[in-house]
User: Fold this.
Amino acid sequence: MTKLTTTISGLLLLVAALPAVANNTGIFGKSGRDEETGSCIQCHTGSTPGEPNQPEPAVLVEGLGDNLTTGGFATLRITVKTNDPTGGVAAAACPDRCAGFNAAVDEGAGFFLVPDGSPLQVNAARDEVSHVAKSPFQDGAVSYDVVLTGLSRGDHTLFVGAADVDGENFTGDRVKAARFTFAVTDPPPPPEPTDDAAGCAQAAPTAAWSTAGLVLLLARRRRGARA
Ligand code: HEC
Assistant:
């Protein structure tokens, strides 16, 4: 009975461990948007008693300017910077440490698109994006390019859970949960007709004249060729 219990708990442990192992290939639901599903710190560093999450990586986002319009798109560049000088594990292809991330927007804000061949993946709802494989830092930074399309009007938030890992296991990893707010507004209405537009209309007869002139010229040439 004890043996059976051990086997069962062993199996349970294995089942519990399996989804975690899959996180080597990226993870959804850990951006920090959904409190009930947690964030990177659950497993990386935070699970190691006594190890502080220091120094945290920095997360920067470009492309969330004030020109975002309803129905339009934002071209985003999410950059993770390591601040940890301890280095990583060369054998794990992380000599200078590696990055990974999971970003999400509030529901209905828009839909993520990743370029073909990009090292990123989106979830079924297309409101989350994540790395597929860890990316080695180069000069201390890794940038991920992604498009957020079908923007909806209003105030929104981009949530980014990022990890700066040593490439080996949970220890020596640093995580950061960052959020960035952005506003999407309706595009300005088409310009009212102005005096300039009237000027264009006045210019039209001139254009008609020159067309007439061209026809006349061609006709003369043709006549000339016949003669
Ligand atoms: C449920 C636990 C869990 C959560 C939450 C989690 N990970 Fe992981 N992650 C793992 C496990 C297990 C591995 C494989 C062991 C390792 O290398 O640390 C891993 C590996 C990684 C790796 C590759 C590291 C390597 O050594 O190959 C990266 C990068 C990574 N995770 C990033 C993240 C990011 C970013 C988040 C939050 C958005 C996150 N993880 C959340 C469990 C988790």
The domain at 22-183 is CATH 2.60.40.680 (Immunoglobulin-like). The two ends are 115 Å apart (CA to CA). The pocket of heme C is lined by residues 20-21, 23-24, 27, 30, 38-40, 42-44, 92, 98, 100-102, 134, 161-163, 165, 167-170 (CB under 6 Å).
